Amino acid sequence: MNSSPHRIPTAGVIIIGNEILSGRIQDQNLGYISAKLGEYGVQVVEAKFIADVEASIIKTVKEYADCYDYVFTTGGLGPTHDDITAASIAKAFNAPLETNETALRSIEIRCGKIDENSNSTIMAEFPKGSTLIPEPISGAPGFKIGNVHVMAGIPQIMRSMFDHVLLSIQRGSPISSQTICCFLNEGIIAKKLSTIQMKYPEVDIGSYPFWTQGTFGASIVVRGTDNSIITRAIEDVSEMVKELGGNPIMEAA
Amino acid sequence: MNSSPHRIPTAGVIIIGNEILSGRIQDQNLGYISAKLGEYGVQVVEAKFIADVEASIIKTVKEYADCYDYVFTTGGLGPTHDDITAASIAKAFNAPLETNETALRSIEIRCGKIDENSNSTIMAEFPKGSTLIPEPISGAPGFKIGNVHVMAGIPQIMRSMFDHVLLSIQRGSPISSQTICCFLNEGIIAKKLSTIQMKYPEVDIGSYPFWTQGTFGASIVVRGTDNSIITRAIEDVSEMVKELGGNPIMEAA
Fold first, then answer.
1. Which one of A67, A138, B62, B218 has the lowest number of neighbouring Cβ atoms within 10 Å?
2. pTM metric for this prediction
3. What is the DSSP letter of B95?
4. Which of A38, A138, A209 sits opposite B23 (nearest CB)?
5. How far apart are CA A184 and CA A179, in angstroms?
6. Helix A155-166 vs helix A29-39: crossing angle, to nearest 10
7. Residue A135: DSSP 8-state
8. Is the dihedral of CA A141, A20, A73, B154 positive or negative?
């Protein structure tokens, strides 16, 4: 998948769920996935938040599976009528749904014997060709098909699945960063900061403004895979802040 | 734009910024925008998180401007080298950038006279044909071009801009919801809940599982534009929970 040793592996994240698009609940999964993937040297290039709508799931999964090395989805794996992720991804891969006996037993161990009033068997149906992502809390696994990793939406359960998935991720060079905060207006630092970015093309320098207690400031983040270059660039940033009359505050990593 | 009185106006949201995709900071804007638009009867259909990359911004803005009644972007409006939103959206609309004198004065009033060391003038450059979205905190406005509303990324400033934008939004029927929580496993409620959804096709019934203190439960949300139907459906949900041996807890609106 990643033939060049210098190419950074890429990922796309799909957050599925009406409740997030309606603003009823705040997503907590994208940040967790992105930060962890960064530690593993995998870059999240794009994320999409979509509703529990079959056509949207199929279209987005196909697009991301073609574009990125890894795709991660969260949400829509439960047994209720609005949980359509597994069935939609089966359609995206033209794979029929099959009941997995291992998953069925795992769900019964956690939730008790499934009788005719329960819909829990649906959580043991996966597209043919999937491998399971174990989940010890609920007993209901996620699954992987192709490069697409399909996980639950509940943050604690998603994290448990994702931490398992990470074991099989092909690592890139870890992406690390150093940050300096200062209470200077971005307009003041912009020109000199641009010069530092041009001096160190191997790193990405971002300036993220904030507004706190009536004052503007900026967090300047140097991000890359070579720690010695990051350190040199951040020293230049620190000097620049001092020259402009500010006080560079190194943020703890 | 919204010729049928029954069609719900739609929106797409574009969250722009490397810092969010890297997991360094958690987005706070999508939830605010979505919840407020819901109150105004506008439905967020999709949201995309993209990096500060010109091609991504142009592609996503064009796609969303064609697909949705309203498009909202956040992030990338500052004066540093990584702030490329305004220039990219100008390209998406084939419109040259022009310096707006009103914006320039507004920035100078808040930030002081702009001299040759400052890059703040760039924050007064907008695509030709834009109208400004005023911003009292920083003095640096956002802008609207076509159906695309371009706002800052800092949450306090974004909210100030967005609240101004809302004044000119064409309202749909307000989308409201009622919620019942219970400590029943979703597998138990799924079949009966599906029957209630079929009985009330005018509303969307969602079941959102949670896991707290070692126990699974579900929040069942009935969402729609007709409060009398929402109330009838939620009464059915409450009865269902009791029949299944649970205790329906009505969540405060």
1. A67
2. 0.93
3. -
4. A38
5. 15
6. 20
7. -
8. negative
In 3D space, the residue among B209, B20, B183, B59 whose CA is nearest the CA of residue A208 turns out to be: B20
User: Is the CB of A190 less than 8 angstroms away from the CB of B79?
Assistant: yes
Cβ(B193)–Cβ(B222) below 8 Å: no
Q: Which residue has the tokens 């995206």?
A: A92
| Rounded Cα gap, residues A161 and A131, in angstroms | 13
Instruction: Label residues B108-120 b or e (16+ Cβ within 10 Å = b).
Output: eebbeebeeebbb
Tokens encoding A119:
């819909």
State the number of CA atoms in the 13 A half-sphere of A81 facing the CB: 15
Read out DSSP for B65-123?
HHH-SEEEEES--SSSTT--HHHHHHHHTT--EEE-HHHHHHHHHHH----TT--GGGG
Distances (CA, A) of A3 to A169, A173, A226: 15, 14, 20
pLDDT in tens, chain B (253 residues): 434 446 889 999 999 999 999 998 899 999 999 999 999 999 999 999 999 999 999 999 999 999 999 999 999 999 999 999 999 999 999 999 999 999 999 888 877 777 777 788 899 999 999 999 998 888 899 999 999 999 999 999 999 999 999 999 999 888 899 999 999 989 899 999 999 999 999 999 999 988 888 888 999 999 999 999 999 999 999 999 999 999 999 987 6
Cβ within 8 Å of B, A 120-179:
120, 122-123, 137-138, 153-154, 156-157, 175, 177
Nearest CA in chain A to B50: A46
The total of other beta-carbon atoms located within 10 Å of residue A93's CB is: 18
Q: Specify the residue for token string 């609106």.
A: B253
Chain A nearest-CA distance from B2, in A, is 20
Is-contact A196 A205, C-beta < 8 A? yes
Tell me how far apart the alpha carbons of residues B36 and A39 are, in angstroms, rounded to a whole number.
Answer: 35
> How many Cβ atoms sit within 10 Å of the Cβ of residue A66?
10
Is the CB of B80 less than 8 angstroms away from the CB of A46? no
DSSP B233-248: HHHHHHHHHHHTT---
Residues in chain A, overall count: 253
Strand A142-145 versus strand A131-133 pairing type: antiparallel
